From TrEMBL:
One Gene Ontology term from the biological process aspect of the record: carbohydrate metabolic process
Family statement drawn from the similarity comment of this UniProt entry: Belongs to the glycosyl hydrolase 1 family.
Residues in the signal sequence: none
UniProtKB keywords: Glycosidase, Hydrolase
Recorded GO MF terms: beta-glucosidase activity
Superkingdom of source: Eukaryota
Alphabetized InterPro entries for the sequence: GH, GH_1_N_CS, Glyco_hydro_1
Cited PANTHER family: GLYCOSYL HYDROLASE, MYROSINASE 3-RELATED
Protein name per Swiss-Prot or TrEMBL: Oleuropein beta-glucosidase
Annotated organism of origin: Sesamum angustifolium
Gene3D superfamilies attached to this UniProt entry: Glycosidases
One Pfam match: Glyco_hydro_1
Keyword match Protein transport: no
Length: 440
């Protein structure tokens, strides 16, 4: 038996007293989202090959300019986001059509981030291309560095139906083409690429527990598995798992994920890196395991658990949990819902351990809070909230800063420049307005 341990002893640093100045000058502080969980844009052109629509999520697609302004107020250096495969390539591959609007969106976001003084962590549908270009350009214009994830669990439905997505080796070539299209369209501005988000999580939750798309596995394997289906559309679906073989499929999927990652990295290094000057890696879900006892079986179990969790690329971006969620209690007023002191403590404690690890010689280069905004969760939908900004799903998707957003801004901006004090006052004024707002 392996025991997943975290925080067994307190850090010698007091997290509440730390600021960004306690970290190396080149340490990157950012925030993160994923395309399907925040963008929405279901009525926009190109997401599905037949022109049908996806979900609203938090409507980031139509509100990204305002969201980037919030990022600027926070003072983050970087924004990690993903690019929608099916928005860019509705047919799943280059012999379909490319969505230029999707590309423009990301260009605007990246340019806006950079203009705010930071660094970004992400046939053809040309509208999608335009959309992502707009987003990227906007981020860069605001001085926020884009960190772009190419794949964050959203396999195009057409490829899932045609050959089973990552269950088939055919996915490798199609993923490589999508990745190269991203390098070609955005790589002149995007300098930090993540091929895949948490491949182990995708294989386990999607093909063992059935709680993530495509929802394979047994409904008895996980209590939320019965709610796993239908992530790619808003229409009502039979919310049960699709079946599959949980003893085989996750290993097949994991194999194809690793190959697809390697092929994409090779393409970037051979054809783009020398000219574009960027970096590329993978993000792994990270954890540590200790034997439950001194028995050899428990020692072996802990070793296997570490291998499964970290074995497919721990040299690159390991994704230690940097967020905490709470139940979406709809009985709470907004003024009460934004009081998330537990989230502040989580980040303070985590950063204290990060500081301690750096001082001990660990090469930790950044911290991306998950998530900047409440969003649509793969298994839980809108029933939980992860964000530093509260999303009012009932009244126009209005954003309200939680106490954690105020804390993060103070942590990042304390004793930096006089202008940052005005930024704090602006967002605290927003918070005061929120407190005066009547509950729903």
């Amino acid at each position: 038996m392996a025991n997943n341990v975290a925080g067994a002893q307190l850090s010698r640093y007091g997290g509440a007293k730390l600021t960004r100045h306690d970290f190396p000058a080149d340490f990157v502080f950012g925030g993160a989202t994923s395309t399907y969980q925040v963008e929405g844009g279901y009525a926009q052109d190109g997401k599905i090959i037949d022109g049908s629509n996806g979900c609203v999520a938090i409507d980031h697609y139509n509100r990204f300019k305002d969201d980037v302004r919030l990022m600027k107020k926070l003072g983050i250096d970087a924004y990690r986001f993903s690019i929608s495969w099916s928005r860019i390539l509705p047919g799943g591959r280059l012999n379909g059509s490319i969505n230029r609007e999707g590309i423009k969106y990301y260009n605007d976001l990246i340019d806006l981030l950079l203009a705010q003084g930071g660094r970004l962590s992400g046939g053809i549908n040309r509208e999608a291309i335009k959309y992502y270009n707009d987003l990227i350009d906007l981020l860069l214009a605001q001085g926020i560095e884009p960190f772009v994830t190419i794949f964050h669990f959203d396999v195009p439905q057409c490829l899932e139906e045609e050959y089973g997505g990552f269950l088939s080796p055919k996915i490798v070539q199609d993923f490589a083409e999508f990745a190269e299209l991203c390098f070609f369209e955005f790589g002149d501005r995007v300098k930090f690429w993540i091929t895949q988000n948490e491949p182990v999580t995708f294989a386990k939750n999607g093909y063992v527990l059935g709680s993530f798309p495509p929802g394979h596995g047994s409904t008895s394997a996980h209590p939320s598995a019965k709610n796993a289906v239908g992530h790619r559309c808003c229409r009502g679906v039979d919310r049960t798992c699709y079946g599959g073989d949980a003893g085989i499929e996750p290993y097949i999927v994991g194999h194809h994920l690793i190959i697809a990652h390697a092929v994409a990295v090779d393409i970037y290094r051979r054809n783009y890196q020398a000219v574009q000057g960027g970096k590329i890696g993978i993000t792994n879900m990270s954890g540590w395991f200790e034997p439950y006892s001194n028995a050899q079986t428990d020692i072996d179990a802990a070793s296997r658990a570490v291998d499964f969790m970290l074995g497919c690329g721990a040299r690159w971006g390991s994704n230690w949990r940097t967020g905490v969620n709470e139940k979406n209690d709809r009985s709470l007023t907004i003024a009460k819902a934004i009081k998330d002191d537990y989230r502040i403590k989580f980040h303070q404690d985590h950063l204290a351990y990060v500081k301690e690890a750096i001082d001990s010689g660990a090469r930790i280069k950044g911290y991306f809070a998950w998530s900047l905004f409440d969003n649509y969760e793969w298994a839980e939908g809108y029933s939980v909230r992860f964000g530093m900004f509260y999303i009012d799903y009932v009244n126009g998707y209005t954003r309200y800063p939680k106490k954690s957003a105020i804390w993060y801004m103070n942590f990042l901006n304390k004793n930096v420049l006089p202008r940052t004090k005005r930024q704090v006052e602006e967002i605290e004024d927003d918070n005061a307005t929120t407190k005066r707002k009547k509950g729903r």
